[in-house]
């Protein structure tokens, strides 16, 4: 398990991280989401030891992280980077060895990883000769090729086509479930995060503003929204309910926000009185909606 | 379904810097720039050595001289040849029946000069000073010979009197008999030392920028510490510098030996070893500084600016060292051969010229090693503080502060 506790980091007058704490348990995939500039990259860089925090610490399996432990982490930085003129397989072998693999192991693992990511055919090419999408895959291979104990990926899905997204999703799931590797990745593709992640950490302006499973995040939201579709009903039937407010009219029906003291069964009764209720239930907000709600955007 | 990403046992914790060094070494060994620069150096050296071996060798001078009239007398011819050999030259003599014939041969270039009688030399446009001297010698010699002959001295005795004695040269201060040759070697040595130090230093700086500009440095630093990356880079590039230097020196000394450009290859070998030793120390001293200047900027175009201070110091050291070829014992030369910034260039010159004392050499080494020991941690910290900062040029102060709290820079 990876634990971040009380991380604080400033750059001059800018507070990039303010008391950031969260955990990535073994075998779980954690989505790290937040607006641009929220502090995701800074936090990840601190986990990898590329930056040092002003306060707080990173713990791995209960102990503070040192260089030896970090060598077993896999990292894909937001600023993609490989030696442009080095050949793909040579490069991955080299990086694998820097992470502590023997030459033979590093080469074998690099080939296998390229195979999994569907770029084995480009193993002998220079990185600069590859398309951006394929460079991205090689970059992922660089994070995976040394069989890391932990995966930290900064925007791993950006720039991938749907096939690449599926391939990477599969790899991350297998890393987590088959090998118990904790995975944390940042992304702006919230539908993907929702689909893939066991837990979500939402960061805004250097602070963790929400964290937990998607269900926990939903439960913790303040608004009670219900979707109601009444066929043949009279317009404005809901106007007579105190504490219920029309939020949105959608093709699926009306979205009503109910105050805490409003009994949804009473709303249902009124709806039925008005016409045939085709649909009635709480609105399960998507992560994107939760995100917008929380960061107020 | 297996994705083939099964887990291996924990890795061995081998020195990562060696991996970095190996990569930096091999990548540059295969680099076109390296091959070309080696070829250019070898070509220049070959020309220099061949010129020295065959070009200006004054012991092989041959003058083609025509003789007319009284000058054709065999006695004068003999004196001419002796005078020539006394000055280390040879004469190719042609006798002509008349002046017209001789002068047309002169115009055609068959001969370089024509001696008419015993008091006139005719040249096409000019007569070389040494040929004039030889003729003068010969005429005087012939007069003395005729005089002694008249006085009844036997030809054998005359020859003995006129033969040039070999004079032994002695100086009050001991003087190196091979000083000229050593100066030539020292000149090549300082050129090579300058080229190596500067060229490989720049390679360190560009290597740092390459990693910074391509952003691969962030990947690298998530696996290893900045110190390991820096140490590996310096070691790999430095090793290549050593290999190239050894290769060039072996080639040059071998060629000199084969062509006879050097009488004493031992001195050249000794000088080459001295240059090599001081290159290793000087490179260790400067490489960290080059790496820091590379880490401060993000693009190749900005490197020139960042390197100005180091360039200036090395360039000045180079000029002082060239000056030391002429006056190795001057205060400036002696001081420059001791101060770490310039000693890598100035000391080999003074050693090659035999002017450095053992105490000076020892001082120079100690200062250079101590200077390096002080500079390297400083450079490593600045490098660690600057290498991840892309965008505008990093200020030294910011780099220093950035690394302040970093365990990686402090070696932890």
Question: If you had to describe this structure to a student in words, what would you say it looks like?
Answer:
The complex is a heterodimer of chains A (297) and B (412). By secondary structure, chain A is of the alpha/beta class. In chain A, 34% of the residues lie in helices and 29% in strands. Chain A has helices spanning 40-47, 67-70, 88-98, 103-116, 132-144, 162-179, 190-196, 214-219, 264-274, 287-295; strands at 2-11, 14-24, 29-33, 55-60, 63-64, 73-76, 150-154, 183-186, 199-204, 207-212, 224-231, 244-250, 253-258, 276-282. Chain A has a six-stranded mixed β-sheet with strand order 6-7-8-3-9-10, sandwiched between helices. In chain A, β7, α6 and β8 (183-186) form a beta-alpha-beta unit. Helices cover 68% and strands 6% of the residues of chain B. In chain B, a hairpin with a 3-residue loop joins β3 (113-116) and β4 (120-123). With 412 residues, chain B is mostly helical. Residues 1-13 and 405-412 of chain B have low confidence and may be disordered. In chain B, α9 packs antiparallel against α10 (265-296). In chain B, strands 2-1-3-4 form a four-stranded mixed β-sheet, with helices on both faces. Chain B contains 15 helices and four strands. At the A-B interface, α2, α3, α4 and α6 of A face α1 and α8 of B.
Map the helices and strands:
The complex is a heterodimer of chains A (297) and B (412).
Chain A: E1 2-11, E2 14-24, E3 29-33, H1 40-47, E4 55-60, E5 63-64, H2 67-70, E6 73-76, H3 88-98, H4 103-116, H5 132-144, E7 150-154, H6 162-179, E8 183-186, H7 190-196, E9 199-204, E10 207-212, H8 214-219, E11 224-231, E12 244-250, E13 253-258, H9 264-274, E14 276-282, H10 287-295
Parallel strand pairs in A: 3-8, 3-9, 6-7, 7-8
Antiparallel strand pairs in A: 1-2, 1-4, 4-5, 9-10, 11-13, 11-14, 12-13
Chain B: H1 16-29, H2 32-55, E1 61-68, H3 74-86, E2 89-96, H4 99-108, E3 113-116, E4 120-123, H5 129-150, H6 155-162, H7 179-213, H8 216-223, H9 226-259, H10 265-296, H11 300-326, H12 331-336, H13 340-352, H14 358-386, H15 396-402
Parallel strand pairs in B: 1-2, 1-3
Antiparallel strand pairs in B: 3-4
Helix pairs in contact in B: 1-9, 2-9, 3-5, 5-6, 7-9, 7-10, 7-11, 7-13, 9-10, 10-11, 10-13, 10-14, 11-13, 13-14, 14-15
């Amino acid at each position: 398990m990876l634990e971040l506790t009380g991380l604080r980091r400033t750059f001059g007058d800018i507070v990039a991280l303010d008391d950031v704490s969260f955990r990535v348990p073994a075998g779980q995939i954690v989505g790290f989401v937040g607006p641009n500039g929220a502090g995701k990259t800074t936090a990840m860089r601190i986990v990898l030891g590329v930056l040092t925090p002003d306060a707080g610490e990173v713990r791995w399996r209960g102990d503070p992280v040192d260089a030896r432990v970090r060598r077993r982490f896999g990292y894909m930085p937001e600023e993609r980077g490989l030696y442009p003129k080095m050949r793909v397989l040579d490069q991955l072998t080299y990086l694998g060895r820097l992470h502590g693999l023997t030459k033979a192991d590093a080469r074998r693992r690099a080939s296998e990883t390229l195979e999994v990511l569907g770029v084995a055919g480009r193993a002998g090419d220079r990185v600069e000769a590859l398309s951006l999408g394929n460079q991205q895959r090689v970059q992922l291979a660089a994070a995976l090729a040394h069989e890391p104990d932990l995966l930290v990926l900064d925007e791993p899905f950006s720039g991938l086509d749907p096939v690449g997204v599926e391939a990477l999703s599969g790899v991350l799931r297998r890393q987590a479930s088959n090998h118990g590797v904790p995975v944390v990745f940042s992304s702006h593709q919230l539908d993907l995060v929702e689909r893939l992640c066991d837990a979500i950490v939402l960061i805004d302006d250097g602070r963790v503003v929400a964290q937990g499973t998607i269900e926990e995040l939903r439960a913790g939201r303040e608004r009670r929204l219900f979707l109601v579709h009444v066929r043949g009903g009279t317009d404005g039937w809901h106007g007579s309910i105190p504490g219920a407010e029309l939020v949105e009219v959608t093709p699926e029906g009306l979205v009503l926000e109910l105050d805490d003291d409003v009994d949804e069964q009473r709303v249902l009764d009124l709806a039925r009185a008005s016409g045939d209720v085709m649909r009635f239930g709480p609105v399960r907000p998507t992560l994107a909606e939760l995100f917008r709600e929380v960061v107020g955007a | 379904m297996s994705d083939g990403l099964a887990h291996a046992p924990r890795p061995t914790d081998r020195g990562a810097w060696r991996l970095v060094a190996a990569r930096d070494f091999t990548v540059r060994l295969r680099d076109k720039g390296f091959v070309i620069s080696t070829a250019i150096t070898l070509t220049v050296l070959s020309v220099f050595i061949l010129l020295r071996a065959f070009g200006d060798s004054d012991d092989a001078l041959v003058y083609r001289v025509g003789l007319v009239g009284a000058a054709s007398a065999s006695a004068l011819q003999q004196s001419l040849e002796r005078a020539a050999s006394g000055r280390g030259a040879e004469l190719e003599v042609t006798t002509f029946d008349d002046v017209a014939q001789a002068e047309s041969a002169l115009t055609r270039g068959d001969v370089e000069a024509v001696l008419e009688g015993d008091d006139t030399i005719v040249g096409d446009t000019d007569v070389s000073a040494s040929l004039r001297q030889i003729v003068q010698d010969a005429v005087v010699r012939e007069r003395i010979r005729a005089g002694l002959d008249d006085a009844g001295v036997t030809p054998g005795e005359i020859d003995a009197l006129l033969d040039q004695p070999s004079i032994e040269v002695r100086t009050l201060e001991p003087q190196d008999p091979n000083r000229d040759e050593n100066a030539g070697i020292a000149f090549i040595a300082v050129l090579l030392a300058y080229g190596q130090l500067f060229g490989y230093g720049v390679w360190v700086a560009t290597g740092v920028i390459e990693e910074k500009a391509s952003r691969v440095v962030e990947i690298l630093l998530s696996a290893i510490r900045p110190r390991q990356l820096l140490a590996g880079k310096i070691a790999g590039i430095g090793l290549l510098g050593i290999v190239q230097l050894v290769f060039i020196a072996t080639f040059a000394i071998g060629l000199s030996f084969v062509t006879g450009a050097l009488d004493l290859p031992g001195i050249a070998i000794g000088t080459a070893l001295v240059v090599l030793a001081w290159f290793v120390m000087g490179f260790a001293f400067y490489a960290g500084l080059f790496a820091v200047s590379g880490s401060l900027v993000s693009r190749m175009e900005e490197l020139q600016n960042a390197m100005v201070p180091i360039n200036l110091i090395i360039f000045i050291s180079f000029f002082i060292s060239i000056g030391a070829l002429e006056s190795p014992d001057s205060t400036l030369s002696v001081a420059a051969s001791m101060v770490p910034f310039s000693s890598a260039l100035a000391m080999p010159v003074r050693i090659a010229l035999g002017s450095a004392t053992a105490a000076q050499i020892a001082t120079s080494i100690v200062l250079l090693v101590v200077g390096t020991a002080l500079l390297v941690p400083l450079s490593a910290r600045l490098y660690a503080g600057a290498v991840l900062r892309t965008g505008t040029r990093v200020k030294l102060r910011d780099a220093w502060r950035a690394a302040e709290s970093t365990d990686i820079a402090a070696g932890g």
